[in-house]
Amino acid sequence: MPALRLLGRLTSINVRKAMWTAALLGLDIEREDWGAGFRSPQEPGYLAMNPNGLIPVLVDGDFTLWESNSICRYLAARCGDTALLPTELRARARVEQWMDWQAGELNNSWRVAFMALVRGQPAAPEAIAAGVAGWNRHMALLDGQLARTGAHVCGEAFTLADVVLGLSAQRWLNAPIERIELPAVQAWMQRLSQRPGFADYVGNGMP
């Protein structure tokens, strides 16, 4: 089987999602630096693989795939891992529901505040304050879910929902903002820290 390649810099949260998934699956994956400070994803060859010009892109032989959560799902399915990505209809739907929530609702809640406070993009103080409030509100929704399950995002089992949301929660914990107390999130992150690859791709100090 051809070697897997992931195109994208490690400082990207979306690249780290895919790399942590690969580590959990025991996959040997070659990562190449693309993005800010490295090769430009606006190069024609890259745009032929991802017309959005964003990272990461997975290359598996003659097959290419973009969108980090789709890459995580593909890697799990490629390995036949039914723990990270269940095959039972409703169990899989629940995992994908929370993955979609991470990519849409949660990511959009932190974008303005994070890009201003960490990446240095200009933003009005009121926009930053609203962003922090929205970020905390969304994380409180996750905390409520974890309090109900008492274990992981979708229940007792560790799944891809925990992978992608674990990266998001770590970003929230590292951000220079005033955070609300979320005990279920804190306990869950401690559980996640025992997983293979966590130290390399989640708890590595990267924003």
Structure description:
With 207 residues, the chain is α+β, with helices and mostly antiparallel strands. The protein folds into two domains: 4-78, Glutaredoxin (3-Layer(aba) Sandwich); 89-198, Glutathione S-transferase Yfyf (Class Pi), Chain A, domain 2. The protein is built from eight helices and four strands; from the N terminus they run E-H-E-H-E-E-H-H-H-H-H-H. The chain has helices at residues 13-25, 44-49, 68-78, 89-117, 125-149, 160-174, 183-192, 198-201, and strands at 4-7, 29-32, 57-60, 63-66. The chain has a four-stranded mixed beta sheet, with helices on one face. Helix 1 links the parallel strand 1 (4-7) and strand 2. The protein is globular, with a radius of gyration of 17 Å. The chain starts with a strand and ends in a 6-residue tail after the last helix. The mean pLDDT is 96.
List keywords for this structure.
207 residues, alpha+beta, Glutaredoxin, Glutathione S-transferase Yfyf (Class Pi), Chain A, domain 2, 8 helices, 4 strands, 55% helix, 8% strand, globular, Glutathione-S-Trfase_C-like
User: Please, how many helices?
Assistant: 8
Could you spell the SSE succession in H and E letters? Answer: EHEHEEHHHHHH
Q: Count all strands and give the number.
A: 4
CATH topology of the largest domain: Glutathione S-transferase Yfyf (Class Pi), Chain A, domain 2
| Rg calc | 17 Å
Averaged pLDDT, please?
96
Report low-confidence residues grouped into runs of 5 or more: none
Approximate helicity band: 40-55%
Question: Can you summarize this structure?
Answer:
The protein has 207 residues and is of the alpha+beta class. 55% of the residues lie in helices and 8% in strands.
